[in-house]
Each structure stands twice: as structure tokens, then as C-alpha cells.
């Protein structure tokens, strides 16, 4: 049964691949070091982060070139735009640029005879796509969205409570009984985890790992919220002596928790901080219990038990 | 029912009243350690280097050599004094420790006051000898007060408070990283503290008598890691780990200190909000470490520290390679986090590995051998590398070192541990 569920999940996820199309392939060449000369009709974009890149007179670049650091010597043709943020850009006499030239920093050295077909933007004059201004969401839509989020989280709690009851209970227990330790660990995992993922994204090659990591981090936060919500439901049932099944109490507990969190997060000044603290406690509880696989016992207590 | 509740409340109240002397002793310890650490952090480590290089005009190699000499002399004095205190049972004599502390503060105040009178390297070396005497005596004396003033269950929190106060003051309120500013602040602190510690050391008060006997109580006497018995191997393992942390920290930071881009956009930023952000990160990091100290295995905390250092230096090396023209605040934030975590460890573990008898020698071995020696040797090396290595290469070496230590600890943490060990 478990294998069937896993298979279903994999099939569902693989359906997402249908969104990809061979025509939509994006190609970029990254240069970080050394001397590189592009030959022929080069497809895609060019990103120079260091070293030296050259486009000879008989070569062309189909996409755009972005120069962050290092040197780019253009003698041939570039069909897209050229953006200079840092480093040295040289346009030779036979250079031809089909798109715009965006100069944000660095050194630009054009030779007489070089042709720029598009426009040249300098500094803050670089044109950015216009986004229509949106009115702030109304109170009604905010409340509706909060309610929908809370219901979705409540349904997630029912689902997790049914397929993984022990794990949810362990996460909830760690978050409720060891909030300070959970919050501290959650803070470290959050701050260091995000920094690590961003650093990995810089390498370009590790962007897929970054995306997986971000999803895992998000899932851990949601799992932590569910753990806290289920604990709220369980405590409410105990205190109010309500005749509710575990799944129902998990749903209503998580619903109440999510609504309260949404309300607290909307408070001016302290709201954002409260949201971060609760997320950190949940994330820490998930980390301490290894996604609910083991019960967290503080080391001093475990030590005394020995 | 009602009378039961009332009597419970009364008992709690009585306990609290009885705990007030303990609380005051705890606060005394935090104040003394935070002031002492602030002095070392600012005036000794940063101010003296600036004094030697800028005001005396000594070449960087000479300053590096002199600072290394200070480190070794401090280490030697600390070990000798720690050994003497251990053999003579001074670890149990609270009043004598207070009197020694008073002497140290007086000596440091005098030395800090006369420092600008120094005119050449010979006088500077003589001055450093005096400073190493004060620091070397200070390490075992101050650290051994932990078993007198801080209950075992609060050691993580006391270390967190000491770290928070020292770094908050150093990072938040020291925009001018020059000898004159550090000397002014340190003198103010020393001269304000001298009468207070003088009164504590040489007057009689029932509260002080109560504090003097606290080391006899089981909740103060035997450190957390004494319960299962501490092996010699484990003790030296901590010293090596702490040495590695201090070495990596100073080796990287002393080079970043010479890079205006990274200092002016972070620790030495003219923008108070940025310095406040770094100070707040120190406080949050220290408090998190205080909470985690008694709840997690120390190996986990050491892994966090090495891991964060490796990540931070990797970010710096990326940033240097990109030749970016402005600093990014996430790098000093991670740096401050790692520094706060390990400083809390350093303030708590030596007492938790000791009894009132052994704390002077253990603290001397721990703090002097790992902290002082590593800090000043790496400071000397960083100054020497300043001319020989490019910034990128320097940071890459530090990053590699942090990574190697992280991986070594990771491998060690997989190995099984003895059941009696608690670290």
C-alpha cells in the first residue's frame, strides 16, 4: 500500500514534466576564469563573472551578454542586449549590437565604427518592465485568504495525522514542551539553511539542489505548524472535554492555530517577529525530531536518565 | 485546598527570597566576566595591534611577533598560576580570589593608563610583560569563580549573558576601532569597577560569606560533565576543538579587519543601524547557544560553529572573486552568530569539566592553551600573511581549515561514544 502511494506521488510529480517543451530550452554560458573565445554562431546568453571572454569578428552571440566582472571583448555580432555591471567591456570597430546597451557600472570602451542598433541606457536610466500598481488587499479578501489557508492547513493536519500519527505527535510534543530549544534550533536551521541555499545557487550548477532545499525547508515549517496545531487541538479536547475524534481535533486545532497565527502576524511592529518565532519553533521541532522520526529528549534529562 | 495552595505559594516565595543572594552572586559573576571579556576583546586584541602599528610605527612583522610573545607569556603565567591555585586549594577560597581579581583590575587600570607613554618597542615589550601577567593571573582566578557563583543548571545562561553583554558593547558601540577609543572605554570600565571590586574583596558582609560557601553545595560543586566521569582524552578533545575554533576565527577576522570594504559595511559602519544589527545578532546567537547548551550534545554545537565558519568564509571568497563593490550584511551576520555560539561554549565548558579544586588548572589549560594561544598565534600569522597572500587566497585557506575541522568533527561524531561520557 505504501509503495502504491509512493508510485502515485511519483507519477503525479512526473506529470509536471509535461510543462517542459524542447523549444523552451534556455541556454547560458558562464565564464568565471581564464581566457575564452566564442566561435561560430553561439546560441543562448553569455554571463561573465570573471576571466576574459572574446567574440571574434566572424562569430556571433544569439542571446544577450551580461558582464558582472572580468573582461568582454566584442569584435563580432550580438543579437540580444549587453548589460555591463562591472569589469571591462570593449567594442571593437567591427562590433555590432542588435539589442540595447545597459551600462550600470564597470568600464565601457567603444571603438569608432562599432554599431549599436538599440538604445543605450546608463545608470538608473535602465528601463525596467512596468508592473501595474496593485491596490492593497481589502480586509475582506485578507480574511478570506487567511481562512482558506487555515482550512488548507487543517486538511493537511488531517492527512498527516492519518498517515504519520507518531511523527506529528513527536513534533508537536517537542515544539510545545521544549519551545525554547526548538526555537533556538529553528533559528539556526533557518538562518544558516537559507544562507547555504543562496550560496549554492551562486554556483549555478547547484540551483536544482537549492530549489529542493527550499522546498524541504518550507515543508519543514508547514510540518512544524501542523505539529503545533495538532497539539493545540489535543489540549483543547483535554481541557474542554470535547467528544472529538483525533482527526477532527487535529483539523480544528490546526485551523484555530493558523487563524490565531494569521491574526498575530498582522499586528503592527511585533506581528512579523511573532510569525518568525512561531515558524522557528516549528522548524526547530521538526529538526530536533528528524522530521518526527525520533522523540526529542533534552540532553541533560537523557543524561540523568542514564 | 485553599490552605494547601497558600502554603505552596509561601514556600515558593521563601525559596525566591533565599535565592536572592544566589541571584546577586550570579549577576556579580556576569558583570565581572563581561567587563573582562570586553577589555580583552577590544583593548588587548584590537587596540594593542593598532597601537604598535600606527602609533609606534612598528612593521607588521614586529607587531605580529610581539603579539605572539604576549600570547605565549600569558599562556605560561596562566598555567603557572592555575597549577599553583590547584595545588594550594585556592579554588575553594572565594575571598582570596576576589582580592586577586581586585589586584588584576588595579594593574590593568594602571597599565591602560600609562600605555600612551610608551615610545619604542623595548618599552612596548615591557608593557606587554605586565599585561600578560595581569591576563595570565586573571584567567584561572576569574574562571574559577564559576563554581562559587553560578549553579550548574545556569551555566549556559550565564555564559550567554556574558557573551551578549561583551559583544553587544563591542559591536554596537565601538564605531571607531582605534587604540584611543578602546583605551578610553576600557579605562572608564576599569576605573568604575575598581572601587566596587575593592569593596567586595576587602569588606565583610554576610552575603559575601554565603557566596564563599556556595561551592560546597552539590548544585555548584560538580560540573555537568563530571557526572559520568571525564576522560583525559575527552578533555584534550575539547581543548583541540576550541583551539581550532579560535584559530579559524582570528585568522580570518584579522584579515577582514584590514579590508575596508568589509569593515566599513559591517563592524565599523558609520550607520548605527548596521552595528546595532550585528550587536543584536550576537545577542540572539548567544541566547540561542545558552538555550541549547544543556539540551544538545556539545558535538552538535561544535559542528554548528565549524559549519557556520566554513559557510561564512565561502561566502566571503565568492564575494571577493566577484569583485563586488559593496558589502553584504549576511556574511557578518553569520560570522557574529558563529562567534557568539563558541564564546558561550568557552565560558561554560571549563567549569562543567571541573570541581572547585580542579577549575583553576582546567580553566588555565582550556582558556590559555586554546583561547589565548590560538588567538594570538593566528593574529600573528594573519599579520604576517597580510603582505604575502592575496585576500582571496587568505580567506580560502581559512575556509579550507574550517571545512577540514568540520569534516573531522563530523566523522568523530559518527563514532560510538562511551555511555559514561556526556558530551
What is the tally of helical segments of chain A?
8
Contiguous low-pLDDT stretches of chain B (5 residues minimum) are 1-7, 419-423
Rg of chain A is: 27 Å
Distance between the termini of chain A: 39 Å
- Sheet/helix structural class of chain B: mainly alpha
Q: What oligomeric arrangement do these chains adopt?
A: heterodimer
Number of domains of chain B: 1
The percent of residues in helical segments of chain B reads: over 70%
- Sum up the overall morphology of chain A in one term: elongated
Q: Return Rg of chain B in Å.
A: 22 Å
Give an account of the 3D structure.
- The complex is a heterodimer of chains A (306) and B (423).
- With 306 residues, chain A is of the alpha/beta class.
- Chain A folds into two domains: 28-125, no CATH class; 140-305, no CATH class.
- In chain A, 51% of the residues lie in helices and 16% in strands.
- Chain A is built from eight helices and 16 strands.
- In chain A, the strands form three sheets. Chain A has a six-stranded parallel beta sheet, with no helix packed on it.
- The longest helix of chain A is centred in the last third of the chain and has 34 residues, at 207-240.
- Chain A is elongated.
- The two termini of chain A are 39 Å apart.
- The relative contact order of chain A is 0.09.
- Chain B is mainly alpha-helical and 423 residues long.
- Helix content of chain B is 80%, strand content 0%.
- Chain B is built from 16 helices and no strands.
- Chain B has helices at 2-55, 60-88, 94-114, 121-143, 146-149, 155-172, 179-202, 206-212, 218-221, 232-256, 260-264, 272-293, 298-321, 330-352, 359-388, 391-414.
- In chain B, helix 6 runs antiparallel to helix 14, helix 10 (232-256) packs parallel to helix 15 and helix 12 packs parallel to helix 14 (330-352).
- The longest helix of chain B is centred in the first third of the chain and has 54 residues, at 2-55.
- Chain B is globular, with a radius of gyration of 22 Å.
- Residues 1-7 and 419-423 of chain B have low confidence and may be disordered.
- The A-B interface holds A 32, 49-50, 68-69, 86-87, 105, 178, 180-181, 183-185, 187-188, 191-192, 195-196, 198-199, 202, 298-300, 303, 306 and B 153, 224, 227-228, 284, 287-289, 291-292, 294-297, 304, 307-308, 311, 314-315, 318, 321-325, 330, 333-334, 337, 419, 422.
Amino acid at each position: 500500500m505504501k509503495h502504491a502511494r509512493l508510485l502515485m506521488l511519483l507519477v503525479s510529480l512526473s506529470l509536471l514534466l509535461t510543462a517542459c517543451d524542447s523549444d523552451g530550452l534556455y541556454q547560458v554560458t558562464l565564464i568565471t576564469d581564464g581566457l575564452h573565445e566564442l566561435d561560430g554562431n553561439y546560441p543562448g546568453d553569455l554571463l561573465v563573472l570573471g576571466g576574459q571572454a572574446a567574440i571574434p569578428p566572424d562569430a556571433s552571440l544569439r542571446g544577450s551578454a551580461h558582464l558582472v566582472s572580468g573582461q568582454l571583448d566584442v569584435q563580432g555580432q550580438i543579437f540580444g542586449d549587453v548589460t555591463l555591471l562591472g569589469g571591462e567591456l570593449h567594442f571593437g570597430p567591427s562590433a555590432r549590437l542588435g539589442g540595447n546597451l545597459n551600462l550600470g557600472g564597470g568600464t565601457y570602451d567603444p571603438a569608432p565604427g562599432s554599431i549599436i542598433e538599440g538604445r543605450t541606457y546608463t545608470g538608473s536610466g535602465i528601463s525596467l518592465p512596468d508592473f501595474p500598481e496593485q491596490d492593497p488587499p481589502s480586509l475582506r479578501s485578507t480574511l478570506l485568504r487567511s481562512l482558506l489557508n487555515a482550512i488548507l492547513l487543517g486538511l493537511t493536519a488531517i492527512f498527516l495525522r492519518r498517515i504519520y500519527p507518531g511523527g506529528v505527535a513527536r513534533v508537536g510534543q517537542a515544539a510545545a514542551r521544549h519551545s525554547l530549544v526548538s526555537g533556538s534550533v529553528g533559528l539556526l536551521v533557518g538562518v544558516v539553511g537559507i544562507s547555504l541555499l543562496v550560496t549554492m545557487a551562486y554556483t549555478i550548477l547547484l540551483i536544482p539542489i537549492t530549489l529542493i532545499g527550499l522546498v524541504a525547508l518550507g515543508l519543514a515549517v508547514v510540518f512544524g505548524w501542523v505539529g503545533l496545531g495538532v497539539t493545540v487541538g489535543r489540549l483543547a479536547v483535554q481541557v474542554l472535554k470535547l467528544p472529538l475524534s483525533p482527526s477532527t481535533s487535529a483539523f480544528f486545532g490546526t485551523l484555530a492555530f493558523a487563524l490565531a497565527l494569521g491574526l498575530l502576524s498582522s499586528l503592527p511592529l511585533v506581528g512579523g517577529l511573532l510569525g518568525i518565532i512561531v515558524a522557528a519553533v516549528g522548524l526547530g521541532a521538526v529538526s530536533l525530531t528528524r522530521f518526527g522520526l525520533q522523540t526529542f529528549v533534552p540532553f541533560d534529562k537523557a543524561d540523568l536518565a542514564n | 485546598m485553599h490552605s494547601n495552595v497558600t502554603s505552596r505559594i509561601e514556600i515558593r516565595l521563601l525559596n525566591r527570597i533565599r535565592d536572592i543572594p544566589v541571584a546577586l552572586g550570579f549577576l556579580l559573576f556576569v558583570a565581572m566576566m563581561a567587563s573582562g571579556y570586553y577589555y580583552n576583546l577590544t583593548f588587548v586584541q584590537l587596540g594593542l595591534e593598532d597601537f604598535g602599528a600606527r602609533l609606534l610605527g612598528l612593521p607588521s612583522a614586529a607587531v605580529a611577533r610581539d603579539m605572539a610573545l604576549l600570547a605565549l607569556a600569558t599562556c605560561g603565567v596562566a598555567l603557572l598560576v592555575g597549577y599553583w591555585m590547584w595545588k594550594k586549594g585556592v579554588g575553594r577560597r572565594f575571598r582570596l580570589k576576589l582580592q586577586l581579581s581586585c589586584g588584576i583590575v588595579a594593574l590593568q587600570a594602571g597599565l591602560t593608563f600609562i600605555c600612551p607613554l610608551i615610545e619604542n618597542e623595548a618599552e612596548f615589550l615591557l608593557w606587554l610583560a605586565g599585561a600578560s601577567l595581569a591576563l595570565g593571573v586573571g584567567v584561572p582566578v576569574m574562571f574559577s569563580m564559576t563554581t562559587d557563583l553560578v549553579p550548574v543548571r545556569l551555566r549556559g545562561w550565564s555564559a550567554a549573558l556574558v557573551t551578549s553583554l561583551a559583544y553587544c558593547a563591542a559591536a554596537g558601540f565601538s564605531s571607531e576601532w582605534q587604540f584611543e577609543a578602546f583605551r578610553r572605554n576600557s579605562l572608564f570600565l576599569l576605573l568604575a569597577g575598581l572601587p566596587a571590586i575593592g569593596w567586595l574583596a576587602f569588606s565583610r558582609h554576610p552575603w559575601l560569606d554565603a557566596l564563599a560557601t556556595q561551592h560546597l553545595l552539590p548544585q555548584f560543586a560538580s560540573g555537568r560533565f563530571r557526572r559520568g566521569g571525564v576522560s583525559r582524552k575527552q578533555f584534550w578533545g575539547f581543548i583541540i576543538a576550541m583551539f581550532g575554533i579560535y584559530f579559524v576565527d582570528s585568522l580570518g577576522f584579522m584579515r577582514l579587519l584590514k579590508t575596508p570594504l568589509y569593515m566599513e559595511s559591517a563592524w565599523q559602519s558609520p550607520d548605527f543601524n548596521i552595528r546595532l544589527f550585528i550587536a543584536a545578532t550576537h545577542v540572539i546567537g548567544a541566547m540561542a547557544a545558552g538555550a541549547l547548551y544543556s539540551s544538545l550534545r556539545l558535538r552538535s554545537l561544535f559542528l554548528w560553529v565549524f559549519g557556520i565558519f566554513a559557510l561564512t568564509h565561502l561566502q566571503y571568497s565568492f564575494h571577493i572573486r566577484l569583485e563586488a563593490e559593496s558589502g553584504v550584511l549576511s556574511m557578518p551576520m553569520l560570522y557574529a552568530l558563529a562567534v557568539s555560539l563558541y564564546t558561550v561554549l568557552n565560558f561554560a565548558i571549563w567549569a562543567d569539566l571541573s570541581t572547585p579544586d580542579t577549575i583553576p588548572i582546567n580553566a588555565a589549560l582550556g582558556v590559555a592553551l586554546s583561547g589565548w594561544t590560538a588567538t594570538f598565534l593566528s593574529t600573528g600569522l594573519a599579520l604576517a600573511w597580510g603582505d604575502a597572500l592575496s585576500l582571496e587566497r587568505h580567506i580560502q585557506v581559512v575556509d579550507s581549515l574550517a571545512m577540514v575541522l568540520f569534516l573531522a568533527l563530523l566523522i568523530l561524531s559518527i563514532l560510538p561514544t562511551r555511555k559514561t561520557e556526556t558530551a
